User: Fold these one by one.
Assistant:
Number 1:
Amino acid sequence: MGAWGDLRDVAKGWRWGRRTLVPRSASRHTPTRLRGQFPTAWARTPVAKAAREVLLSYGLRPLVRNETAPKVHGLENLEGLEGPVILVSNHTSHLDASLIMTSLPRKWREKTATGAAADYFFDTWWRSIFTALVYNAFPIDRTGRGHGATDASHMLHDGWSLIVFPEGTRSPDGWMQRFRTGAARLAVQHAVPVVPIAIRGAYAAMPKGRNWPRPGRLAISVRFGRPLHPGEDEDHRSLTRRMFQAVAELFDEDSTTWFESVRRAERGETPAPSGPEGPRWLRAWEASRSLPRRGRRPAWRR
Amino acid sequence: MPRPGFVLEVDERTPPVLVHEGEGFRLQRFPLGSRVVYPPDPLPGIKDVGAAIRHALENPVGSEPLSELLKPGMRLTIAVDDISIPLPPMKPPDIRQRILEQVVEAAARNGVDDAKIIVATALHRRMTADEIKRMVGERVFRSFYPKDLYNFDAEEPGSLLEIGTTDEGEVVEISKRAAESDLIVYVNINLVAMDGGHKSVAIGLAGYRSLRHHHNVHTMLHSRSYMDPRPGRSAIHDSATRMGHVLRDNGVRIFAIETTLNSETFPSQFGFLNKREWEWSLKDQALFLAAKRANELAPPRVRREVWRRIEAPYGVTGVNAGETEAVHERTLANLYRQQLVEVGGQSDVLVLGVPYVGPYNVNSIMNPILVHCLGLGYLFNMYRNQPLVRQGGAVIMFHPVPWEFHQIHHPSYVDFFEEVLVETADPKTIESKFEERYATDPWYVHLYRTSHAYHGVHPFYMWYWGAHGMDHAADVIVVGGDPRSCARMGYRTASSFRDALEMATDTVGASPSITYLHVPPLAIAEVR
């Protein structure tokens, strides 16, 4: 085989330009590479902030709204709040960060950063630059051996609000998973409020495994809740439970009404956002139902 | 903590896998579901090797410290493993040099005058002065060579002494100088589990009369495997142990110094050869492409020279000294820690990439018989419990098997290939009909003693090493092999791996299970 054949084999075998994959049976034996901290401080300079605003307002936001039909509720809960805050949301889709960033009012958006998995979003130079610039992201090592928590701590200290997905990864079946305690630890440590967010419909629009939304401009709901302030003696476990409950109530509110959800919450009957019991296929099936379109139907079918 | 070895199951995410093929390598895609056995990561090397050697010599197991054994007026013989290990040769300073320097220093300080260093070549070729110098270091070489540092000569009249006979009737005959010494210090490198132990003195310093008791077809067929020297598993090791006991019982005092190395087999410019493929960085991929292209474009002489010059940056993982068996037990534990990989069950097809160097072609040419020895002899036997391939399965090897011989190092190989293998490839027939004649041929003896030739009987032993593999596998197919030389040895050839698998279906059916032993770096499969 000639040089071109070898080059082709290597380019194909190692997926040049795409993410290198680890064979399944080797994943247990392959440590997540501890990346040298990809520098992201440049993404918070005035020039990068201006570029990001342009990209978000005139690029990402129209794109998201062209491909999906997001409805944003509860932004009034941010009124009167002084940053920084930690925005916590359920996580089912790559759309989530884009939805939150493009839903936030500009003054919040300008001072918000996103924690992103180092092994996924910072694995190649071009993906690292894109992620850092568009989402003002900083790498989080999901193995717990990296500096993600330290970086987040520094950023909160510097007045940056953070978007954190406490589940740690996208839900495999569209339903909410257990919350990890990292976000609550940060909130307790820095005494900053936590703003819960529930995103419904993103799994149906673009589940794990897809890199572009399903056609049909599916409805998505982004619902912001009331901020949760860590109590004086509250520990991170308790705050994590409250965060989980708050997101669960937002789900309930979004699928019924605010009044009903409050009544159910008072009775301790808020439906679990972890979804129905049953086999994985059934859970995924239920989660992949698209949300009913509310409001006026467009005159022309898309 | 270095990662242990493991068995990869090839899936659609698996990049092509590196396969050695003589003085070259290729990327090969394997069918989905194939297994690839990867060796453990290199163990960390000892930081202060000098201190480790000192500690081993002063705190030996089952023996007094070396300094107490060295006395004025004594006869001291230091024997040392020859160039056949490690593979590739170790980046200087060789661990043997570091040990020899301390042993010689101790001898000098304790008033020993009569000290000789013997390279334990048995029936291997004599090492050249430059090779010895590289191995023992300039200081030892200058002090001892040539009078007191020399190659063992198994054919020198009167140079061997019969020590006794084992219960099984095996004659134990070793170097007279060593046997009559007050102390033999044996400096060993244990590259694989086959090396060391009683094998060092009882084989390394023995001649044909003694070696024939274990270097024969019957013993090789009952050594399952060579990499498992536990009693009852390997007939060759059982025989060596019996001989070692005869030496011990007849007052031959041996102070064994055994060392183990980690698996840092290739230098940084060939670093990709040490890595698991999916962990190759862009730099590794570029290095692979550049190295492969340069290797293919280089004239054969240049290519061979480049490979020949590879020096392994091995780290030393253990130095143990003292009584032979106690030391060897520790050595084996260390070695298995580096090389053992657990594998679940046998497969229908075993795939082997035969690399450019084996024990008997260092600074030489790997002729077809050595390919047979390295592939079916050594690599096939890199297992414990049971072979990686089932009885009646197929072995697919990658090697060009050129019809090429080193005229100085391997003269008897040429005749073996041209005369013996033309008639039969059956080890038993070969042994009974031809061995004695080649072993006693005066011309081969002359070349062995005065030139740098392997002994006349050596190609026979190489053929016997593969006897178990030949007996076990129903089919041997060589990808990219020279059809003429392969046919001479009873192998079939294929131009591609796909063709080889297609050909193997005659033996193992249409959907065989496949295991590829990804070596070097070396791994021993513990097959459950």
Note: Chain A has a mean pLDDT of 87.
Number 2:
Amino acid sequence: MNPDDDELSALIREHATRHAAPNTLRGSLRAQLALADVAHSAAPAAKPARRGAPWLVFGWRQAAAGFALGIACTLLAPVLWQHVGPGEPFEDRLVAEHVRALRSGPLFEVASSDRHTVKPWFQGRIDYAPPVHDFGADGFALLGARVERFDGQPLATLVYARDRHMIDLVIAPRDAAAAAPRALVRRGFNVLHWSDGAMAYWAVSDVERAELERFQRRWAREAAGR
Amino acid sequence: MSRSRAFETLVLPHLDSAYNLARWLLRNEHAADDAVQEASLRALRYVDSLRGDDARPWLLGIVRNTCFSMLQRSRQGLQTVEFDEAEFDAAMMVEAEPAHADPLLQLQRKRMRVQIDAAILALSPPLREVIVLRELEELEYAQIASIAGVPIGTVMSRLSRAREKLRAALTKTYSGPTP
């Protein structure tokens, strides 16, 4: 028995949609692998003999990250400049930075879930002291931090993992009245912006908006509790 | 093999196939994204289970299992969608905007795509699965059987049932709405 139907097959093959994997998926898979590698090397004492000398793995990753960063800078600088010129709204540039970090790294320049490691790391890199919290117990694990330049000003970016998603939290000093969270969507990414009087915050992620709001409430609770 | 290397050589070349299958099975791009991520990471964990076999059916098997357990978890996928006439008409209106050289031909092709996509989407997941694997991924019966975890005979009977339904659905749309 041959169940094939050539006419129908030809029709389907010619006309049905073939869904191509989006580039963001490739990017976030690479990010996942990087995260897994970081998690792996974060506990080298437990299984020391598994993947050869830890310094070798580390060296390789450093080299790869450096290389990737170099490539990214060279390739993306003109592209980013074109798409993310100075005239563009800040939120668009936030999302562009988030996508760039996912796609080509580095996701963070210091990898640590310990706020006492991350907070001092900012010293000398930026001219203010952003608050740093880890909410690993609530499903928002601090992975590390990096510094992003916006209009020449270096801003602190904390990186969190929510399940398989990444949340970037950009923090800027701001002496203004506190502002309630305001949500918007840019290129499919959710952006939540709020201010607590001392600092302004932008959380950027592809998680659902409700999740991002949960993250914001958790952050506000932490800030109020101190 | 390192994870990164396994990813570049075994998963990345088949990511479009993996996404296509997940997108058709789950009928939602975000869910498909999540499924492919989960399946790819799982595949890398069990990369040793691949012994010189073709990586594509192996990966598709993992994607397929991930999708079906997601469907089971959400308990929404096991029924087929009702054919939503308003939504279909809206899709046709959007698709109907002529874009290139021969607007009429373009229009016909787009209509055809909307109709065929809708007919495939209306199939139950097990039937949709065999159609996507056979017609869009162009796999052999034996490969489909191992991906779906059923005997070849079942693959063939599902395929003929799926085709019967597709023919019926397409004939209906061709002859236009009945008054």
Note: Residues 77-83 of chain B have pLDDT under 50 and may be disordered.
